Amino acid sequence: MIGGTSLFGGRGSAWSAVLGVLVIQSIANGLTLMNVDQAARYMVTGAVLLLAIIIDMLMRKRREGLT
Question: Which end of the chain has fewer CB within 10 Å, C or N?
């Protein structure tokens, strides 16, 4: 859940999407400043997105299990 919008039908807002873009861009800029290879930057960005999806799935399961 980057930017407040879930891949599984979540609700988001324009401000949340802007925040998500800022997070991803900050990661990319930081890795560029550290002179990390472009392939590694893509892998790190993909790992962050994958982690966000996993966290979203776990949170969704937990919410569904409580109701």
Answer: C
Res. 1 pLDDT band, cuts 50 70 90: low
Note the residue count of the chain.
67
Between CA 62 and CA 26 the distance in angstroms is 30
Question: Are the CB atoms for 5 and 12 separated by under 8 Å?
Answer: yes
Eight-state DSSP code of residue 11: -
- In whole angstroms, what separates CA 37 from the centre of its chain? 21
Tokens of 17: 């999407």
Closest CA to 7 of 66, 55, 64: 55
What pLDDT is stored for residue 9 in this prediction?
Answer: 62
Give the distance, in angstroms, between the CA of residue 22 and the centroid of all CA atoms in the same chain: 11
Contact 56/38 with Cβ under 8 angstroms?
no
